[in-house]
Design goal:
Blueprint lengths: L4 E6 L2 E6 L10 H16 L6 E5 L24 H18 L4 E5 L2 E3 L1 H7 L3 E5 L3 E3 L13 H9 L1 H10 L2 E3 H7 L4 E3 L4 H13 L3 H14 L4 H16 L2 H11 L9
Parallel strand pairs: 2-3, 3-4, 4-6, 5-7, 6-9
Antiparallel strand pairs: 1-2, 7-8
Helix pairs in contact: 1-2, 4-5, 8-9
């Protein structure tokens, strides 16, 4: 049986590849269970300092596979609330809560929950041929896996509503222009640019990266005063870290820092 998620270990980072290319990496429960297990393993490895998520073949992820366990049948409708909460949404929670910077490298289509997984990443790179589509409306469903949250915060209410209500696909260059993703790159350059970014993050101060993730998670809900308090606390923690001391020494000695994490 082929692994639903492939893991490549590199020096300081890991690449996770959704691996159902014949189905454009459509999601099923075994894939989600394996993805959660790979996240556990990466978190437990102190040598791992960054993660990449991508898809095998022609697509990033076409969303939930419409198999017998998730479609109406003789026994009535499926429990999509439980499926979302226990599986899809747990992936999003774990990506956002991870100490590790998370790069999503979008090759081809990112649809439905697949688009949400991409947007959950800290940095999203996409090949120019990639597309993002909120496909839920096409089958009578509503956005899930954080789509309504991510889109509203990234592109604003008007565009978020239009994408959800119409189900239109947008290309990577439009996604970049709207602020949905970090950068659109040539398809042939996507893998190399993703790897270079993973290497860069793996060499960065790990505690500061983790704190930045906490900081921006708070910014989504905090008032200005609460966010200032959070920034002060996290800055205090960073100022007591070995990485800060190394960064200052490297600056004074006019050399590249060697962060230990």
């Amino acid at each position: 049986m082929t692994d639903e998620v492939l893991v490549e270990r590199h020096d300081g980072w890991r690449k996770l590849t959704l691996n159902r290319p014949a189905k454009l990496n459509a999601i099923n429960i075994p894939m989600l269970d394996q993805l959660l297990a790979t996240l556990d393993a990466a978190e437990a490895d102190t040598a791992c300092r960054a993660l990449v998520l991508t898809g095998a073949g022609r697509g990033f992820c076409a969303g939930q596979e419409l198999g017998a366990d998730v479609t109406p049948g003789p026994n009535g409708p499926p429990d999509l609330q439980a499926l979302a909460d226990r599986h899809h949404h747990e992936v999003v929670r774990r990506i956002r809560a991870s100490r590790l910077p998370f790069i999503c490298s979008v090759n081809g289509v990112a649809a439905g929950a697949g688009a949400s997984f991409a947007l959950a990443g800290d940095i999203v790179l996409a090949g120019r041929s990639a597309t993002f589509v909120q496909a839920f409306i096409r089958i009578g469903l509503v956005p899930d896996s954080g789509a309504s949250f991510f889109l509203t915060h990234l592109v604003g209410d008007a565009r978020a509503r239009g994408l959800a209500l119409l189900g239109d696909a947008i290309d990577a260059e439009t996604a970049e222009r709207w602020g949905m993703i970090w950068k659109a790159v040539d398809d042939l350059a996507l893998e190399a640019e993703t790897a270079a970014m993973a290497v860069r993050l793996a060499k960065a101060p790990a505690e500061a990266l983790a704190a930045i993730k906490v900081m921006f998670a708070g910014a989504a809900e905090n008032s200005l005063h609460a966010q200032l308090d959070l920034e002060a606390r996290l800055q205090g923690d960073a100022g007591r870290s070995a990485d800060f001391a190394e960064g200052v020494r490297a600056f004074q000695e006019k050399r590249a820092p060697r962060f230990g994490g």
